[in-house]
């Protein structure tokens, strides 16, 4: 996420354009780089989009492959090509071992608008507002990927359920209804992309919150005996975000 005011825009064919360079590095447990990515791109906005970007910012998205499981530190930097100004950020990421064929859930990405379906080497989209800050009485969108789901022996399709809870200060603030995972139009059933929408209540106080997603593999659970079902806990991931007062 970038503050558009920190970029240098120039008028090109009735659009506001800024040239950027994006770099990313993945560091292993010993602190040595084990992967990197570099992309050059142009953020091209109409006048309306440009004014919106000045208010809310811009989100840059690109991919960096994780070549092995483990705990990593991911660092990303963006350079304004015109001025050479640089902004950087980092995050610790845990990559599960998918070779053991156990159910796994990726990290959770949050958005304030629905995630676009198209993909590319580098993609710039308007952020409304920043991806980790939301206001009460608004919608929160999340994206994650489920790996290694079992197949139902009859339908030969996954059967997954997601339970979602909202936490603050270690206490449950809200429990959302359980939802089945939609597997229609999935290109790869071993990597199921899930997009969810949550309504943030109008009575939520400003502060830091956690969203918990718990995925249950019903296809596997239905094959177990009753005593064994309790020993099959759901796979859980968390993501933190902030609720702020509306401007």
Tell me what you see in this structure.
7% of the residues lie in helices and 49% in strands. It is mostly beta strands and 247 residues long. Strands 10, 12, 13, 14, 16 and 17 form a 6-stranded mixed sheet that branches. Strands 1, 2, 3, 5 and 6 form a 5-stranded antiparallel sheet that branches. The radius of gyration is 20 Å and the shape is globular.
Tags for this model:
247 residues, mainly beta, 6-stranded mixed sheet, 5-stranded antiparallel sheet, 3 helices, 17 strands, 49% strand, globular
Helix-strand sequence: EEEHEEEEEEEEEEEEEHHE
Helical content (DSSP H or I, runs of 4+)? under 10%
By secondary-structure content and strand pairing, the structural class works out as: mainly beta
Number of helices: 3
Report the average pLDDT across residues.
Answer: 88
Oligomer: single chain
Low-confidence stretches: none
- Record field, number of beta strands: 17
The fraction of residues assigned to DSSP E strands is over 45%
- Overall 3D form: globular
Distance from first to last alpha carbon = 19 Å
Give the biggest beta sheet: 6 strands, mixed
Output the radius of gyration.
Answer: 20 Å
SSE layout and pairing:
Elements: E1 10-12, E2 15-27, E3 33-45, H1 47-56, E4 58-62, E5 70-80, E6 86-95, E7 104-105, E8 109-111, E9 122-126, E10 133-134, E11 139-147, E12 160-168, E13 171-175, E14 179-180, E15 191-199, E16 207-217, H2 218-221, H3 226-229, E17 235-243
Short account of what is shown:
The chain has helices at 47-56, 218-221, 226-229; strands at 10-12, 15-27, 33-45, 58-62, 70-80, 86-95, 104-105, 109-111, 122-126, 133-134, 139-147, 160-168, 171-175, 179-180, 191-199, 207-217, 235-243.
